[in-house]
Amino acid sequence: MHILVRRIIPGVLISLGALGVALLYYYEIVGYASIPVIRLGSYFLYEEIFLLALVPIAILVFRFLRIHPSNDYLEPVPRKFLRKSFGILWIFDGVLQMQLPFLTLFIQYNLIPLLGTEPLVTFLVRHAIDLWSLNPPIINVIASLLQVYLGAFFLIYKRGYVFKFVQISALCWSLIIWVFGEGFGGVLSPGATLLTGSPGSALFYAIASFLLLIYERESSTDRVVIVTRIAMVSTFIGFAISQALPFNGFWTALPVSFYPSPFAILNNLTSITLLINQHAVVLNGVYVLAMLAIGISWLVYPRFAAYPTVAWGLFTWYVYQGLGIFGMTSSTDPNTGLPLILISWAFLFITLSKNRTQN
Fold this sequence. Notes:
It is a single chain. The chain has helices at about 1-35, 40-50, 55-65, 75-95, 100-105, 105-110, 120-135, 135-155, 160-180, 200-215, 220-245, 270-275, 280-300, 300-320, 335-359. It has one domain (about 1-359). The chain is built from 15 helices and no strands. The protein is an all-alpha fold. Mean pLDDT is about 80; it is low at about 35-40.
């Protein structure tokens, strides 16, 4: 079962991601083609610049696949899963960054809503808006290429100085996105909730890179376990408290999902979350208790904790986050649900490996 799951999950992730990207681009090109103000010819030129800049990495990947150097490093299975999963996510994120809305609507939809939440967030986001406004197409291409290159290097390098440089770069870029693009993931704003995406997917990307940096070999798993447990306990108990505070308003109204998804495949989520809101008092209590229980399980019984965390991630990722990339026409990441699942699954692999070693 363990080997079957390990082989199936990457394939499923790649297939779903590829389908999602294809649907989004089809949906957007058809939609934008009906707007005479936007010239698709200019957009395709913009895409050509992006594709040409991918030639060096394509050559490198081809060479790597054709002449794979011998390497006596036996990478632990959990580390390999974490490295390849987030490598694939980085590539998808870079491709999604090239969506049409980022030419005109990124500031309006992604950055301006962050203004006025907290003074520090407003100060930092204003600088991000000023920088992005200098030349949106060029800056967006650079950001897209950076993420695609990071993902490709995740997949190619598994140790050495290049690997460390890539992971440090990914960690730094994740934190830049988290601060300037996500406004600290909303954690400084009242009403932040784990349901809809706080503390921000970029923070989980940073955690994944940090785990890969400290996870050299099987003997390093104790450090990985400690860091993962600290992150999970802080996340679940912290947001359980936030969800329970009366002034955040969750006892009277829970978030409502509305996603203008391609082919209306997520329209049912609005009716689901409206139905949930009819019983907000009861269900918010359930959410608070569930998050507390998951946080405590990471604290006292971490071997079991990954299972409810994966279940929570799947529930919130679909019901409240719209599978991430489908939820917003200018989304570039899967939101927090999927990264949370992947980190938990890697932790589950570690516990299973330890159990086999002990037996």
